[in-house]
Design goal:
Rossmann fold; 4-stranded parallel beta sheet; 4 domains; Alpha-Beta Plaits; FAD/NAD(P)-binding domain; alpha/beta; 15 helices; globular
């Protein structure tokens, strides 16, 4: 398999032999035009070295910076201001702070949380405290400068603390500007205001994500600031991920019926994994099987209803037969082309949202659970609750028609999706909650009880919140 190493990095040459030994042919490119000239199907490994403040990596430079300071003058290492520091950065800060404290300097480390990245971290942390280093956690912080002094006001959740320092050392990594050029060319999502901080990059400062994770299945990002001088630690998982790209990432993939496709590029714009693209041989779109993650976003947004999902196993039916199998269809148009599709869906006079099985003993609540967050919790969180659970690949898959159909059989419908910035498929959670709020508003205008529909955003450890949301939905209360 051919693999692209994109970007200028001191690690490029050391990765080449490791990938070659695993059977990969590498193509190194340093510019976006070089990248665009290569086939889009090739896997891409983004390698962009980040720059760390030399005052947390260069002991001689740090010693020179403190020469004009008195021993009692406060030196502040400021972490997590605009992004979560990686475990590597935290270790660099800990080592440098301990070094300067050993020189009888007054040191404070400000941070939002501690990563405790390895088994030896706790011991180094205790040693640092014995040297007199003050570790201060904060929730909010305000920084200003005047007459060469930096004034810091922080809130730790219970009290306000103010300090002044002649040396405040920002402890953040700044990626090279080329990273954003490559990300734009690959349609990879980035976070933060590039003109201001730029440091949140393509991972949103979320250091806890697996090394290499992006929203595109065939694009890997290596966070070089966490490598130190050794690439060997990431090679096994990287090779495993690359080999998995030979097969689709799930059991079903998107398929576009060229006879129905309006060629409006809606699916191209909304697909969080860039799996949809124009078919050069047809005036229609097509899905790249090796990029599709089966999240359903394209199907729920397609204004022509031209997208269905089919098995990735060897063909057992023709493509035409696949399109006729409406059970594979993800949903009706949701937000396509700026149309008020809720109005269209609810505009028919004969639409009845009462229970079709009224009078029968059945489950009262239907819960659509994101398979990446709520569904793994459901067996624990919903014990004893009269609910029907339906896992979905992503909250973005939940369409108006799915909710309305559920309302015909159940008293209430709850959509349980991921927390903010945790959606595996980009913004499916946000699309879902917006969808629910618009549908609630429309139901209210038509005289139905809007509290029959609700949504909740939860993480993988929030079983209590899912249970509370389900119980509240059963009572029909506004949350």
């Amino acid at each position: 398999m051919k693999t692209i190493l994109a970007g200028k990095s001191r690690y490029t040459e050391s990765l080449k032999p490791a990938l070659h030994d695993a059977g990969f042919e590498t193509i190194a490119v340093e510019t976006v035009p070089e990248l665009k000239a290569l086939p889009k199907a090739y896997p891409v490994i983004l390698l962009q070295d980040t720059e760390l403040n030399p005052l947390i990596t260069d002991k001689r430079g740090a010693e020179a910076a403190i020469l004009g300071l008195k021993p009692k003058d406060l030196i502040v290492f400021l972490m997590d201001q605009n992004q979560d520091a990686s475990p590597y950065i935290e270790n660099c800060v800990l080592n440098m702070a301990s070094h300067l404290a050993g020189l009888k300097r007054n040191i404070a480390v400000l941070l939002r949380s501690s990563r405790a990245s390895d088994f030896g971290f706790d011991e180094r942390y205790r040693t640092a405290r014995k040297k007199g280093i003050a570790f201060v956690k904060y929730e909010n912080i305000d920084i200003s400068s005047d007459d060469g002094k930096t004034r810091i006001e922080l809130w730790d959740g219970s009290a306000k603390l103010t300090m002044e320092t002649l040396l405040c050392i920002p402890c953040e990594a700044s990626p090279a500007s080329e990273l954003y050029a490559f990300a734009d060319a690959l349609h990879v999502r980035t976070y933060g205001d590039r003109a201001v901080s730029g440091s949140r990059g393509v991972s949103g400062g979320r250091w806890f994500l697996n090394q290499g994770t992006t929203f595109k299945r065939n694009v890997k990002l290596i966070h070089t600031d966490s490598l130190g001088q050794d690439t060997r630690s990431i090679v096994p998982s990287l090779i495993r991920d690359l080999k998995e790209l030979n097969e689709p990432g799930q059991e079903k993939i998107a398929f576009v019926d060229s006879k129905k496709c309006a060629f409006c590029f809606t699916c191209y714009r909304v697909c969080p994994h860039s799996a949809l693209a124009p078919d050069e041989n047809n005036e229609a779109m097509k899905a790249e099987e090796l990029l599709c993650e089966g999240c359903g976003t394209c199907g729920s947004n397609c204004p022509a209803g031209a997208i269905a999902f089919r098995d990735t196993e060897p063909d057992r039916t023709s493509e035409g037969e696949v399109m006729q199998q409406r059970t594979d269809f993800i949903g009706e148009p949701m937000e396509a082309m700026g149309q008020d599709t809720e109005s269209v869906a609810l505009g028919t006079e004969d639409m009845e949202l009462g229970r079709e099985d009224a009078g029968k003993e059945s489950q009262k609540l239907k819960i659509f659970c994101c398979e990446n967050s709520a569904f793994p919790l459901s067996s624990e969180a919903l014990i004893g609750i009269n609910a029907a659970i339906q896992p979905v690949a992503c909250g973005g898959e939940i369409s108006t028609s799915m909710i309305l159909e559920a309302l015909k059989q159940y008293d209430s419908v709850l959509a349980a999706v991921c927390c903010d910035d945790a959606c595996k498929h980009r913004d499916g959670n946000k699309r879902c909650t917006r969808q629910v709020e618009r549908l609630k508003e429309r139901l209210g205008k038509l005289g139905y009880d809007p509290n029959r529909i609700n949504s909740v955003r939860i993480g993988i450890t929030m079983a209590d919140i899912l249970r509370k949301a389900a119980l509240t939905a059963l009572k029909g209360e506004v949350r």
